[in-house]
User: Which sequence fits this backbone?
């Protein structure tokens, strides 16, 4: 048995806006007469949009209607409709995510998105998506190395580190090709405050209105390349380095030491493919930044792999790497899916081992999801590793029911997400205890943590599994 579901990735970045459509193949990898083991076995990009400059009304405002027009045109050109899609992601990334109307843009696109995740990407999630799109995770596994992907866009440089295919850390710096912008007359018309401060700290004065001089701006880009070398622990951090992280983020840990790198993002296209004749062809310093990275005395000594994607890495990651499928032994009330943007309430393993503690902790934590005395939608997440026998599952069902009275008496389904493969039997036990009078969604094979949000799609594979998107934005916290 195999089934193909269609996905979209939409990336509204600092410099560019683009989308892809892809097909995810779901297949039962188990042999006959055993419990199905259904996984995503293949991911194929079927359509790549044109790459557009992200339309802005001014330096702080995205043109939401123009963005919508771009996306609608690409849907038409691809012959796709929102109802054709089962999953995917719409993300606003880089400096664009800081624009004051980012949420307005997301709301404008919500009708195009269908019933799946629509969310801005924090810098950590963007780092992971771009690294997976660039193939750094696969390279690290194939070569048994620690590989860092540096996704260098217009406003930020997102870094994700994989060791033998496992994510080990993320970070994000305010280093990018469009942090200095140049008009048609060769004058500087925008400088990001952090970039201006970096230049000034090294005795370089640049101001809006100045003529863009290649020699001066090259020196600034060399300083940005220094910061990237420091970020991957190939140079000692200087006094400015801690100020360079987006949203006061954290530096990567010293271990594991990075063996090799890949580059993605718009600047990486120039890095790999060469410079245009005019270094200011894109009205920014992206070309000079690519040159500074390529010629950097330290960075050029780090082994570098060709990225699978460069300027499209984030959108490919969003369209093909955001979705997982649940385990195949699940329980759900018909007609209650899809459901999206569900906040996660996670119980600790310590809580799970003590029924009284479990119930009191769940009761207390659910108060955080009350709004004006009314229970909001929430997903209760547990490991399930301590309740694998029949009797223990019955005990866990009672623990959930007694602790989640606020959900059970409220208007939303009781949603339980378990890592361990017990959702079917746990769901049956809960249904029996509640006399099937409460809508229930009980799925397994999914990991999520406090602070995450999950989307659960319509059942696929003859109703055996559901696609799940976990929006984790806090990898380096």
Assistant:
């Amino acid at each position: 048995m195999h089934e193909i579901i269609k996905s979209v990735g939409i990336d509204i970045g600092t410099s560019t806006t683009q989308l892809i459509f892809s097909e995810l193949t779901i297949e039962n990898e188990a042999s006959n007469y055993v419990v199905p083991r259904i996984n995503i076995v293949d991911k194929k990009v079927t359509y790549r949009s044109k790459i557009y400059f992200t339309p802005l009304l001014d330096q702080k405002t995205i043109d939401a209607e123009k963005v919508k027009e771009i996306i609608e045109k690409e849907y038409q050109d691809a012959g796709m409709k929102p109802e054709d899609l089962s999953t995917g992601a719409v993300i606003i990334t880089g400096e664009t995510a800081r624009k004051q109307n980012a949420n307005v843009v997301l709301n404008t696109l919500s009708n195009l998105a269908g019933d799946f995740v629509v969310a801005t990407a924090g810098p950590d999630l963007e780092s992971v998506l771009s690294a997976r799109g660039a193939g750094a995770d696969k390279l690290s596994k194939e070569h048994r190395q620690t590989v860092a992907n540096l996704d260098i866009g217009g406003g930020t440089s997102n870094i994700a580190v994989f060791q033998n295919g496992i994510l080990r850390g993320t970070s994000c710096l305010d280093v990018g090709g469009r942090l200095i912008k140049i008009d048609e007359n060769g004058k500087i018309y925008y400088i990001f405050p952090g970039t201006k401060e970096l230049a000034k700290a090294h005795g370089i004065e640049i101001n809006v209105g100045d003529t863009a001089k290649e020699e001066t701006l090259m020196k600034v880009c060399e300083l940005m390349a220094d910061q990237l070398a420091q970020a991957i622990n190939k140079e000692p951090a200087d006094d400015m380095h801690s100020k360079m992280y987006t949203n006061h983020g954290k530096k990567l840990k010293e271990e594991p030491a990075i063996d090799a790198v890949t580059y993605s993002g718009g600047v990486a296209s120039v890095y790999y493919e060469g410079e245009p004749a005019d270094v200011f062809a894109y009205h920014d310093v992206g070309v000079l930044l690519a040159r500074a990275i390529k010629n950097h005395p330290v960075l050029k000594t780090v082994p570098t792999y060709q990225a699978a994607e460069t300027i499209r890495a984030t959108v490919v990651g969003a369209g093909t790497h955001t979705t997982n499928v649940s385990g195949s032994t699940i329980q759900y009330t018909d007609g209650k899916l899809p459901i999206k943007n569900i906040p996660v309430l996670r119980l600790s393993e310590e809580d799970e081992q003590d029924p009284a503690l479990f119930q009191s902790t769940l009761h207390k934590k659910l108060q955080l999801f009350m709004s004006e005395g009314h229970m909001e939608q929430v997903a209760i997440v547990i490991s399930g590793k301590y309740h694998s026998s029949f009797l223990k599952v019955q005990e866990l069902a009672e623990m959930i029911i007694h602790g989640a009275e606020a959900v059970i008496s409220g208007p939303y389904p009781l949603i339980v997400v378990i890592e361990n493969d017990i959702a079917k039997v746990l769901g049956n036990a809960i249904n029996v205890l509640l006399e099937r009078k409460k809508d229930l969604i009980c799925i397994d094979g999914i990991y999520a943590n406090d602070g995450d949000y999950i989307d659960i799609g319509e059942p696929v594979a003859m109703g055996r599994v559901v696609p799940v998107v976990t929006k984790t934005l806090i990898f380096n916290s």
The chain has a mean pLDDT of 83.
